[in-house]
Design brief:
57% of the residues lie in helices and 8% in strands. The protein is built from 14 helices and five strands. It has a three-stranded parallel beta sheet.
Length: 325
């Protein structure tokens, strides 16, 4: 039996470098391994837990599918679908909510951070975010979840729910594990926090031109002189250098930094060029795919059908175990 994989990215905008390094690269790696069956979604329902524009959300649903395809996800190998089209996610989340306490959800650090960020939007949807995420994963009985390390608290909730459902109702949910990648946490270009679509100026889009990338990398805050501890924006810069530059070039810049002779403009230019060279073929492929709207629609339709076939079977089993049918 193949192990099943589920992952998704919120539809708050086109994919950025953090999404690509922290999730999509891992998704591609698993897709190309014959041991796994992969399902990858656009998490549009998770998007409405914080303030959003309905028209932008509608556009982003398809834009992220196009980004997935351009980055290397293959609909012949992976099931690509839009979360809101699979109603089983939401019904299962309701059943899961009957075994999760409000206190458990309120103590999650991710919930507290979002409430602090959006104090006027402390909704039940936000509180239930991890429960819906658990349903997203367990409705497919997924074993692996390629997501960034910041999602680990939510995955622990998923494992708790799986255990409690199995103990209480005799279901057979697996306890999923996170699949990590070398770029599992990409810091913000601002030097604080992570790269995020909700923080303007913190991220590089996969569609950015070389001039836009240069401008954004140039904006990373660094000291006027090199040397000393590597912190803040300098740490961000060196992490990107390690991920995108040849090891010899990375080491050269690091040595120059510790010797106090590094010119930040040189490392910034090298990093910007290296990022663009990796993104260029993705951008070219994206341009071709975006012109073929019928193909994109077909990918979404076929993906929804495959996802629903699996999800409906799981939901049927759960309802029988819980005495609901």
């Amino acid at each position: 039996m193949k192990k099943r994989v589920l992952s998704g990215i919120r539809a708050t905008g086109r994919l950025h470098l953090g999404n690509y390094l922290g999730a999509v690269k891992g998704m591609i790696e698993l897709q190309n391994n014959s041991e796994y069956e992969c399902l990858y979604m656009v998490a549009d329902a998770h998007t409405i837990t914080t303030p959003y524009n309905p028209q932008e959300l509608k556009t982003n649903q398809k834009e992220i599918i196009i980004d997935y395809l351009a980055a290397g996800l293959n609909p012949e190998k992976s099931t690509l679908f839009i979360q809101s089209q699979i109603s089983e996610h939401f019904e299962l989340a309701y059943y899961f909510s009957s075994i999760v306490s409000i206190a458990r959800m309120q103590h999650l650090p991710t919930y507290k951070e979002k409430v602090k960020q959006y104090p006027k939007n402390n909704t039940m949807a936000l509180l239930n975010y991890p429960v819906l995420m658990a349903a997203d994963i367990l409705v497919y009985k997924a074993n692996l979840v390629p997501v960034g390390i910041d999602q680990e608290p939510h995955l622990e909730v998923t494992r708790e729910i799986a255990r409690k459902m199995n103990q209480t109702y005799g279901t057979n949910f697996p306890e999923p594990k996170r699949f990590s990648t070398p770029g599992e946490y990409i810091p913000s270009l601002k030097g604080e926090g992570k790269m995020s679509k909700s923080v303007e100026g913190s991220y590089i889009n996969l569609t950015d031109s070389i001039d836009e990338i240069r401008k954004k990398i140039k904006s990373i805050p660094t000291a006027t002189i090199s040397g000393g501890p590597i912190t803040g924006g300098v740490k961000t810069l060196f992490l990107l250098a390690k991920l995108f530059l040849k090891e010899s070039d990375y080491q050269k810049f690091k040595d120059e930094y510790h010797q106090g002779i590094l010119k930040f403009v040189n490392i910034k230019n090298a990093v910007a060029e290296a990022i663009y060279q990796e993104l260029k073929p993705i951008q070219e492929k994206r341009s071709q795919i975006a012109q073929n709207k019928d193909y994109v629609e077909k990918v979404v339709k076929n993906g929804a059908e495959r996802a629903k076939t699996i999800a409906s079977q799981t939901l049927k089993e759960v309802k029988e175990k819980m005495g609901l049918r």
